[in-house]
Design brief:
The longest helix has 18 residues. By secondary structure, this protein is an alpha/beta fold. The strands form 6 sheets. The protein has a 5-stranded parallel sheet. The chain has a 4-stranded mixed sheet with strand order 1-2-4-3. The radius of gyration is 27 Å and the shape is elongated. 43% of the residues are buried. Strand 8, helix 5 and strand 9 form a beta-alpha-beta unit. It folds into 2 domains: 169 residues, 2-Layer Sandwich (Ribosomal Protein S5, domain 2), CATH 3.30.230.10; 203 residues, Rossmann fold (3-Layer(aba) Sandwich), CATH 3.40.50.300. It is 36% helix and 17% strand. Helix 2 packs across helix 3. InterPro entries: AAA+_ATPase (IPR003593), CHLI-like (IPR045006), MCM_dom (IPR001208), Mg_chelat-rel (IPR004482), Mg_chelat-rel_C (IPR025158), Mg_chelatse_chII-like_cat_dom (IPR000523), P-loop_NTPase (IPR027417), Ribosomal_Su5_D2-typ_SF (IPR020568).
């Protein structure tokens, strides 16, 4: 009996399952059978593997070749099984020994000339392999930087199949790429000092970063809404190691690591165009389910400009992740949950023409058109937005000032200090940010002062607030108290939070 075995990983969202690649070569009519619920891309592996072996001066077995991907009930997709299948065929054919590939996870797509190409999802695949007790991996050079984040594993990389075979037969190994694996937060980014004026909007951005509160910016074109939103990641604290791994894993699944370093500790910002579909926003797909913009913004900022121009239902699809911090996508191929804990920033013009500001003399829109335009932002969605801030046009005096405003570094120091205060307060809790305080805790342990609660209850009794709005204001008041150095939110903190909430 001629049998070869190698190990690979099948991904289901961010979760991976170990797949054993078994190859049997038997006498009979020459043919190739692939078993184990492969998709179209995986079914095409036969031709890629055959060409790669022949062009690497290896022999393709002119017999009946049966490839089984176990467990057979688990759907498999993608081209990351190519290298594993090729090595299992050579083991079954007697051209390679089995022992060197014991407890080694193999990930890589094969080019027709034998080169090893990168695949998506290497980091979550290696995490799954490590949890299964595998501590050695073989990947492509392009995936080496991402794979090296798994410092507990030994990572092998080779540019082509021929060098893999030379190593397995003789132990010769080419030097691995020399990478600086130190996680870095130093990236060229815009700075808040570029923003002229806009004191109120700048403060709202600082509050949003300090407590993780969602923000709506309403103002005419050119007032600076996009500038402020684009600079929000520069005042967010650097990601922790675990957070950075989560972000890298999501971007690896989506195939977007080309625009982001795997070792980056900078919070991501994702800015989908207002014409983006619901699938692009929350994730999905007909064959392989991929994360959407809200998951790519995990631990970062999701900025949607011209929010009222989004198609019907696109913004409302964000209501679930705004509440739960995750997004669950159900398709016929299965149900997958991606993380989606992001800071939402929406930007909108005050009217269709964008000139309804100040005294509104330049605006040509009717009152009905203005109401219809802003009405595209649904009530349930707006109820989940913590702050609504008017962004007025920059005045002539502000534009003439030669002194720059506060830099991102100065603001970030205050944000980090406020978050440290909150983290110390929540040391025995399961959450760390003010925006994550559960409703029950807001009514018991984390109530503001009595006068502040009386003010909120009056607003609730007059039906000027919903229950969710009351909780949002209390959470916001805790962030304002942290920035002001108060141990508990007072009436002034709550009133200011109410003003930011109601715009």
């Amino acid at each position: 009996m001629s049998l070869g075995q190698t190990t690979c990983v099948a991904l289901h969202g961010l979760d991976g399952a170990i797949v054993t690649v078994e190859v049997d070569i038997a006498d009979g009519l020459p043919m190739y059978s692939l078993l184990g619920l492969p998709d179209a891309a995986l079914n095409e592996s036969r031709d890629r593997v055959r060409a790669a072996l022949i062009n690497s001066n290896e022999v393709w077995p002119n017999k009946k070749v049966t490839v089984s991907l176990s467990p057979a009930w688990l759907p498999k997709s993608g081209s990351g099984f190519d290298l594993s299948i090729a090595l299992a065929i050579l083991i079954a054919h007697g051209a390679l020994p089995q022992e060197p590939l014991e407890d080694v996870v193999i990930l890589g797509e094969l080019a027709l000339d034998g080169r090893i190409r990168s695949v998506r999802g290497v980091l979550p695949a290696l995490i799954a392999a490590y949890k299964s007790g595998i501590k050695r991996a073989l990947v492509s050079p392009e995936n080496y930087g991402e794979a090296s984040l798994m410092t507990q594993m030994e990572i092998l990389t080779f540019p082509n199949l021929a060098q893999v075979l030379r190593f397995l037969r003789t132990g010769e190994i080419t030097s691995a790429p020399q990478l600086d694996l130190e996680l870095s937060v130093e990236e060229v980014q815009p700075d808040f000092s570029d923003v002229a004026g806009q004191t109120r909007a700048r403060f709202a951005a600082e509050v949003a970063a300090s407590g993780g509160h969602h923000l709506l910016l309403i103002g005419p074109p050119g007032a600076g809404k996009t500038m402020i939103a684009a600079r929000l990641p520069t005042i967010l604290p650097a990601l922790g190691i675990d957070q950075a791994l989560e972000v890298t894993a999501v971007h690896s699944i989506a195939g977007s690591l080309g625009t982001r370093s795997p070792m980056s500790l900078v919070a991501p910002i994702v800015s989908p165009h207002h014409s983006a579909s619901r699938v692009a926003m929350v994730g999905g797909g007909s064959h392989a389910i991929k994360p959407g913009a809200c998951s790519l913004a995990h631990h970062g900022v999701l900025f949607i400009d011209e929010a009222p121009e989004c198609a019907v239902g696109v913004l409302d699809s964000l209501r679930q992740p705004l509440e739960s911090g995750t997004i669950t996508i159900a398709r016929s191929v299965g149900s997958i949950t991606f993380p989606a804990q992001f800071l939402l920033v929406l930007a909108a013009n005050p009217c269709p023409c964008g000139k309804f500001t100040g005294k509104g003399r330049a605006c040509i829109c009717s009152s009905l058109a203005v109401r219809r335009y802003l009405g595209k932002l649904s009530g349930p969605l707006m109820d989940r937005i913590d702050m609504r801030v008017q962004v007025e046009p920059v005045s002539r005096t502000e534009m003439a000032q030669t002194e720059l405003g506060e830099s991102s570094a100065v603001i970030r120091n205050r944000v980090v200090s406020a978050r440290a205060t909150a983290e110390e307060r929540f040391a025995n809790e399961s959450w760390k940010l003010n925006s994550q305080i559960p409703s029950r805790a807001l009514r018991t342990t984390y109530k503001p002062e009595r006068a502040a609660m009386n003010f909120l209850h009056d607003q609730l009794e007059k039906e000027l607030l919903t229950a969710r709005g009351l909780h949002k204001i209390i959470r916001l008041s805790w962030t304002l108290a942290d920035l002001a150095g108060h141990t508990i939110p007072n009436l002034a903190d709550v009133q200011r939070a109410h003003q930011l909430r109601e715009g």
